[in-house]
Structures are given as C-alpha cells and as structure tokens.
C-alpha cells in the first residue's frame, strides 16, 4: 500500500470519537495496516483491548458515514501540511512514544534532519511568569544550545516559552513551537510577531486541525509532544502546580533526560524545579559546558565562564578546596561517593539510610557544589 493510501486511513480513524493514540497504536499493531482495521468486523475489533461495547458502537456508526478517500481530499484543502505515521517525514522520536499523534499538522520551514533525529532537539519549558533569574538563565541556555546545533522546542506560551524561542532565533538557530490550537491560530495573540518569526526560523506544529481555538484541555496533551520530540527537557522555573511538570512527567515516561534549574527554597517559581531535582532530575549548574556535554554536544562557544557574573546564584559556592563540616547524614552520603559515578540505589544500599533521606541529602550536596548528578540517577563527588 502506498503512503497516500495508508495515510488516509490514519486520518479516517482519527475522526472517530473515542479512538485516541493508544487505541490507534493497538489497531495498527494488531492488523498491520489501518486499512485492514477500517474494514474489520465488530467481532474482529472486539479482540483489541479497549474496544468495549460503547466504543464499538461509535466505530460502526461513524465509520459508515466516512469515505476515507473523500475525507483526505477535503481535509487537505483546509490543512495542506500534515504528517501521519505512514509518512517517512513523520518525526522519528515521536514514533517511539506510546501515544504518537495520528495527525501532526505543521506550518513553517521543515528541516528533515530534525524529523529523522539526526539533528538534536531539546525542550525548554517553565512558568508563564518567570523572574529575572529565570529569564536570564533561559536566554543564556537557549543561546548556547542554538549555537551548538540544537533546535529548541517549546510551547509558544508567555514567559519561559517565549524567551526560549526568541533567544534561539536571535542566536541564529532554529526553534519548534508545539501549540494547543490549530497551526493557523495565534495564541496568545500578543505573540503574533514571535509566531511570524518562528515560521521563518523553524516550524509550528500541532495535533489539532486548522482553526482549532484554544481549549484548556489541549495544552496538557500538547506537552507530551514537546517531551516526545525532545532528547531532553529543561525545566527553567516552575511552581508546584506548573504545567511544565506535566512535560517533565511525560519526559520521564518516554525515557528522556530531565534537567531542572535550582532556585531559592522560598521562591514559589522554583518549587516545581526543586521537587524535580529531589526526584532525580539533573541539576542545571553554573557551568553550561557540563550540560552541553551531557546532551551530547561538543561546545562551539565559550561557555566555561559562569553564566551570570552579576547575578547571585541561589546555591552557595565553595571557595576552599577542603570539604566543609557537614551534618552526619550528609557526611555519610558523601563518604560513599567517589569520582566515578554511582547509581542512586547503590548509594542507598551502602548508607543503609532511607531513600528519601538519601535523595534530600544528595540534593543538598549538589546545591553546595560538592556532588554532581549524571543521567540515569547516578552521582559523583566533585
């Protein structure tokens, strides 16, 4: 079957209410082709997990009213640019997640190196109301990523999203905006100039068709696409209930690396980041080189110096070579660590301490500049 033939069935199935990404994946795996699934009897469909009586009833009723070939022609008139998993251009990393969008609409300048996974994508997310501290870090990191060949992915919302897109483009890099509306709808409208700039320096993508208006249920769902597209997610500033934490949770589910910017313990915009760090997220520290190396890049710009010489960082820095006097539990943890990284479970086993206490101790040691966390919840003494 040609790509055109198969993509029309991806489109047709996406129009059936009650059939989401998970059921579509099951259909595809069971029948091999969605055309076979489209022509399958209710009895055959009933064999698929998740196809109960109500779902089958919807499929039978709605399938009879849809002509896949005519649907594709009509749909393309309003939505000329979209990919389905049947298309070779469909983003490779999205194929790997359990809930890939059946239809992915796009607008802008496509880079097939990004779609194939040959050019790395990094997601940057955070609060809509960042502090000066969060804004400066976001600008610095987005600039460094862009200059080192990464494409910055975010959601075109106010705040951290806007800063990351803007900084990446100013540095001459590309950026991808994943939106919760149609790709032809600008939201928030105050970002209309940013939207136009992104179309020239990247793409806007969405799983929602043209003219889809903002809906609060769409934005948590679009966060899984940000996480799925990205090799790693950087959470710059996030409150305890920030939507950025949803993106981080998806990233963990999809086996992506998660990094968080530490902040002061009494700053509300940092509560989500501190929570992520306590749960094992990587620490974005003062030396950006380390982050770039973790992400797989050989730095092309001078990032050896601290990011902000004028802005006090929220963690204290050690000016002496000798280890400071530590509380007993901190000392017990750091005594276990070595220059070579050790896994979290091993540290818990060796110390004999509660896992929660070990986690909080490691966080404190990281903020003191004595310990570094590596991907995979591994820790090493600095």
Can you tell me about this structure?
With 382 residues, this protein is an alpha/beta fold. It is built from 18 helices and 12 strands. It has helices at 3-14, 21-31, 34-38, 42-45, 53-63, 68-78, 92-95, 112-116, 132-147, 160-170, 192-201, 218-229, 244-253, 271-278, 288-294, 328-336, 344-351, 355-367, and strands spanning 82-83, 104-108, 121-125, 151-154, 175-178, 202-206, 232-235, 257-260, 282-283, 342-343, 371-374, 378-381. The strands form 2 sheets. A 9-stranded mixed beta sheet has the order 1-2-6-5-4-3-7-8-9, with helices on both faces. Strands 10-12-11 form a 3-stranded antiparallel beta sheet. Helix 10 (160-170) packs across helix 11. The relative contact order is 0.09. Residues 304-322 have low confidence and may be disordered.
Overall pLDDT metric = 88
**Percent of residues in β-strands:** 5-15%
Q: What structural class do helix, strand and pairing data support?
A: alpha/beta
Q: What pattern of helices and strands is seen along the backbone?
A: HHHHHHEHEHEHEHEHEHEHEHEHHEHHEE
- Gyration radius, in Å: 23 Å
Q: Biggest sheet: strands side by side, in what order?
A: 1-2-6-5-4-3-7-8-9
How far do the termini sit from each other? 57 Å
In helices, the fraction of residues equals 40-55%
Number of strands: 12
Tally of alpha and pi helices? 18
> Looking at the structure, what is the overall shape?
globular
Q: Let me know the largest β-sheet.
A: 9 strands, mixed
Q: Which regions are unreliable across 5 or more consecutive residues at pLDDT < 50?
A: 304-322
């Amino acid at each position: 079957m040609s790509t055109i033939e198969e993509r029309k069935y991806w489109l047709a199935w996406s129009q059936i209410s009650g059939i989401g990404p998970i059921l579509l994946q099951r259909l595809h795996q069971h029948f091999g082709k969605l055309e076979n699934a489209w022509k399958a009897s209710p009895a055959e469909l009933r064999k698929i997990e998740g196809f109960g009586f109500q779902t089958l009833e919807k499929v039978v009723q709605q399938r009879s009213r849809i002509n896949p070939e005519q649907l594709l022609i009509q749909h393309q008139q309003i939505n000329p640019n979209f990919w389905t998993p049947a298309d070779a251009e469909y983003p490779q990393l999205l194929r790997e997640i359990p809930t890939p969008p059946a239809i992915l609409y796009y607008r802008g300048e496509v880079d097939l190196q990004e779609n194939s996974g040959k050019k790395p994508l990094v997601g940057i997310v955070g609060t809509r109301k960042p502090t000066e501290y969060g804004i400066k870090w976001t600008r610095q990191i987005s600039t460094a990523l862009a200059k080192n060949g990464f494409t910055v992915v975010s959601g075109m919302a106010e705040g951290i999203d806007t800063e990351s897109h803007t900084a990446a483009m100013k540095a001459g890099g590309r950026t991808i905006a994943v939106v919760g509306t149609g790709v032809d709808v600008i939201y928030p409208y105050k970002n209309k100039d940013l939207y136009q700039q992104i179309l020239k320096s990247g793409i806007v993508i969405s799983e929602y068709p043209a003219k889809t208006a903002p809906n609060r249920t769409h934005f948590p769902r679009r966060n899984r696409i940000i996480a799925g597209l990205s090799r790693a997610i950087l959470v710059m500033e996030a409150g305890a209930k920030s939507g950025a934490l949803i993106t981080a949770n998806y990233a963990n589910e999809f086996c992506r690396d998660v990094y968080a910017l530490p902040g002061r313990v009494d700053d509300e915009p940092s509560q989500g980041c501190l929570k992520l760090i306590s749960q094992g997220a990587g620490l974005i520290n003062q030396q950006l080189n380390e982050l770039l190396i973790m992400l797989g890049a050989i730095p092309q710009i001078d990032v050896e110096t601290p990011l902000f010489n004028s802005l006090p960082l929220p963690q204290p820095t050690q000016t002496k070579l000798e280890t400071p006097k530590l509380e007993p539990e901190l000392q017990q943890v750091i005594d276990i660590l070595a220059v070579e990284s050790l896994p979290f479970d091993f540290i818990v086993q060796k110390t004999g301490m509660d896992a929660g206490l070990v986690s909080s101790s490691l966080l404190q040691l990281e903020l003191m500049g004595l310990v570094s966390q590596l991907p995979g919840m591994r820790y090493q003494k600095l």
